[in-house]
Amino acid sequence: MSVTLFNVKITGGRVVWAAVITCVLGVAVAGAVIVVPPLLPPGPRPLFQLPVACGETWKLGTYPGHDDFDVDLFPTQGEAWGRPVLASYAGEVVAAGINGTLGARTPDNPTGPHGRGGGYWVKIDHGGKWQTQYLHMIEPPMVAKGDHVERGQQIGRVGSTGDSGAPHLHYEQRRGRQKVETWFDGHPSGITTDDHEYTLTNTSNNCPD
């Protein structure tokens, strides 16, 4: 008996079957490498902290059309413009730059034209399929794609670029591809649905170790 596999002539039934089994196992293993990782569940929730300076109290708010779990942060004291934006947890920067268009809202021209999207923004991957996003910063981020950041490291400053009506920080936590309720210092923030406008306050524990 003789069989041709991939233009190679092989003689002997046992050899042919061994080759077929080897090929099948090879495909199965390759498939496992490709299919299994996306099916792995997310890891434990990191101990995220508010993305603002230690000890500061900020208002966390949402409104209809904002999207479930999206949080807008405004300081309860002082100007929002230029306030430090801090990493909520250690991780790798996977996006940093411009999301959409910038518009022209600045401290000198706070009612200038809107932009689109998130303006200057940063996205951080914290491992275990957890990510955070920081939008509408006043200027290009202080970090770049591929950088490793520590929790509490400054990554930018609060602004009003993109589709923003006033200076604030738009913030999200994501598990896999899903936005989820933000947690800070081990506790849920309380910002869930966007079916009505509401605000809460929270004090940052994003402090040096």
Features:
single chain; 209 residues; mainly beta; 9-stranded antiparallel β-sheet; two-stranded antiparallel ribbon; 15 strands; globular; disordered N terminus; M23ase beta-sheet core domain-containing protein; membrane; Cell_wall_metabolism_enzyme; transmembrane
Mean pLDDT: 87
Order of helices and strands: EEHEEEEEEEEEEEEE
Low-confidence stretches: 1-25, 27-36
Alpha-carbon Rg, integer: 24 Å
| DSSP helical segment count | 1
Largest sheet: 9 strands, antiparallel
Report the sheet-strand fraction.
35-45%
What's the total count of β strands?
A: 15
| End-to-end CA span | 73 Å
**Which bin fits the share of residues in helices?**
10-25%
Q: Which geometry do the CA atoms define?
A: globular
State the secondary-structure class: mainly beta
What is the structure about, briefly put?
Helix content is 13%, strand content 38%.
How would you sum up this structure, described in words?
It comes from Virgisporangium aurantiacum. InterPro entries: Cell_wall_metabolism_enzyme, Dup_hybrid_motif, M23ase_b-sheet_dom. GO terms for molecular function: metalloendopeptidase activity. This is M23ase beta-sheet core domain-containing protein. The chain crosses the membrane at residues 15-40. This protein has 209 residues and is mostly beta strands. It contains one helix and 15 strands; from the N terminus they run ββαβββββββββββββ. The protein has one helix at residues 13-39; strands at 2-5, 8-11, 57-62, 71-75, 84-86, 91-101, 116-127, 130-137, 148-149, 154-157, 169-175, 178-180, 183-184, 187-188, 198-203. The strands form four sheets. Strands 3, 4, 6, 7, 8, 9, 11, 12 and 15 form a nine-stranded antiparallel β-sheet that branches. A two-stranded antiparallel sheet has the order 1-2. The chain has a two-stranded antiparallel sheet with strand order 5-10. Strand 13 and strand 14 (187-188) form a beta hairpin. The radius of gyration is 24 Å and the shape is globular. The chain starts with a strand and ends in a 6-residue tail after the last strand. Mean pLDDT is 87; it is low at 1-25 and 27-36.
